[in-house]
Design brief:
Strand order of the largest sheet: 5-6-9
InterPro entries: Per1-like (IPR007217)
Order of helices and strands: HEEHEEEEEEEHHHHHHHHHHH
Number of helices: 13
Pfam family, one: Per1
Structural class: mainly alpha
Helix content: 40-55%
Family: Belongs to the PGAP3 family.
Radius of gyration: 28 Å
CATH topology of the largest domain: Rhopdopsin 7-helix transmembrane proteins
Largest sheet: 3 strands, antiparallel
GO molecular function, one term: hydrolase activity, acting on ester bonds
CATH class of the largest domain: Mainly Alpha
Strand content: 5-15%
Distance between the termini: 99 Å
Number of strands: 9
Shape: elongated
Function: Involved in the lipid remodeling steps of GPI-anchor maturation.
Oligomer: single chain
CATH architecture of the largest domain: Up-down Bundle
Length: about 425
């Protein structure tokens, strides 16, 4: 069966058809070999799973994730009966403008990804030699703590910080393959690829994105520090006193999940990070509306609150059901955030004489919009650690302190204004 598959591969390789693919976001001319690997069909009667690749990286994913655009898609030549724990696959790499092939082998258990090492000394070897090596040494290319046959994953060989953060054999293989892919791209003077929409990062004690995780904790600390200052300086009977406590609680929850997500990227941590981040954006808009309409009738305030709670619940339900809609979530965040910023800035400009402290709010809005450029400037990380997203997290920490300073002054002003009103009523 394996020989027949390779014969089919060889016959298809000789086709002169050329096509265009999008390799990690950039348009490249595809060789006939890559065309076959990308468009080939596997035997679904054997229960083969969908897979996709980024450059030279083969990753097994769920069937719906195969639809993701702007990625090279390769298919594995797979052997073995249905339901077998170990599936051997032979992957042949073709260098551009040459007919030289690199043999490689990988072992998959469930969704485990193997490591393939192209070797210079293997140039020019024929198909039969490659096939013999693959079938004779199915597990020799693994760098993960697995047994030689790839059947078992030796847990004791992992450091405790990796096992505690749920780094499985599959994750180890993905991590190793990621850096091999980056090295292969750089060797050919190609741009650094993204993997599942994320740049490659050097992990630190099992933390996938150490800079973003640390800076998220820094934002968490900024909220804790400033709410303590708020409680110390603002009287408890001040208007909107508890509103800003709710805002702080929601923000702390969001930054906590941001830290967890950047530490280990799982579907649940990703969902919680996006949902909690949206809750902060929505809460900021809610606080702005309540501040501007604080003298409105209670019925109006209750209606506004009910609307925001229902809107948040509907958004969470939509994101949690089915395929995660990144585009919709981003557009909604940008729209609500922009609306909130415009309202805060307009209100600050209108009240700049009567309430001199509002300059803090205006500066906060201006700087907040400026640092958002870091989110747009999506570039490979410096030292494989600091990307634009992590620098955005770093820049938001001092802005939190500036915003709380405005909130403290505003609550003091409202408290003083309320006391003056009560004094006038008594007199």
């Amino acid at each position: 069966m394996a020989t027949r598959r390779l014969d089919e591969f060889e016959s298809c390789r000789r086709t002169r058809e050329r096509s265009t693919i999008y390799a990690v976001g950039s348009q490249r001319e595809e060789t006939p070999t890559r065309h076959l690997l990308r468009h080939g069909r596997r035997n679904h009667d054997r229960g083969a799973r969908s897979s996709r690749a980024f450059g030279f990286l083969n990753l097994t994913q769920e069937r719906e994730e195969e639809k993701d655009a702007m990625r090279c898609k390769f298919n594995w030549l797979r052997y073995g009966p249905a339901g077998s724990n170990v599936i051997h696959a032979q992957i042949l790499y073709r260098e551009q403008f040459t007919d030289v092939y690199f043999p490689g082998a990988t072992v998959e258990r469930h969704r485990m990804i193997g490591k393939v090492h192209p070797r210079t000394e293997d140039r020019g070897r024929n198909r039969s030699q490659m096939l013999e090596e693959v079938e004779a040494n199915p597990g020799t290319t693994m760098r993960t703590p697995s047994t030689s046959d790839g059947l078992h994953f030796i847990e004791d060989q992992r450091p405790i910080y990796l096992s505690s953060l749920q780094w499985s054999c599959e994750d180890e293989c993905r991590y190793e393959c990621m850096w091999s892919t980056v090295a292969a791209f750089h060797h050919r003077n190609w741009r650094t690829p993204q993997f599942y929409g994320k740049w490659p990062f050097i992990r630190f004690f099992g933390i996938q994105e150490p800079a973003s995780a640390f800076f998220s904790l820094l934002n968490f600390y900024a909220h804790v520090k400033m709410i303590k200052r708020f409680r110390k300086e603002v009287p408890s009977d001040s208007p909107l006193y508890w509103l800003w406590h709710y805002f702080c609680f929601i923000s702390l929850n969001a930054w906590l999940w941001s830290t967890i997500f950047h530490t280990r990227d799982f579907p649940i941590t990703e969902l919680m990070d996006y949902v909690c981040a949206f809750s902060v954006v929505l809460m900021s808009c809610y606080c702005m509306i309540i501040r501007l309409c604080r003298n409105a009738p209670k019925f109006i305030l209750v209606t506004i609150t009910t609307f925001f709670v229902a809107f948040l619940a509907n958004h969470v339900a939509y994101l949690g059901m089915g395929r995660f809609d990144y585009g919709y979530n981003m557009q909604l965040n940008v729209f609500i955030g922009t609306f909130t910023a415009i309202c805060w800035f307009g209100w600050s400009t209108y009240n700049r004489i009567r309430q001199p402290y509002v300059w803090k709010c205006a500066v906060f809005v201006a700087l907040g919009g400026l640092v958002m450029l870091l989110e747009i400037m999506d570039r490979p990380p410096f030292f494989w650690t600091f990307d634009c997203h992590s620098l955005w997290h770093l820049s938001t920490a001092p802005l939190i302190c500036l915003f709380y300073s405005f909130v403290i002054d505003d609550c003091k002003y409202l408290h003083k204004l309320e006391q003056q009103t009560e004094t006038k009523k008594l007199s």
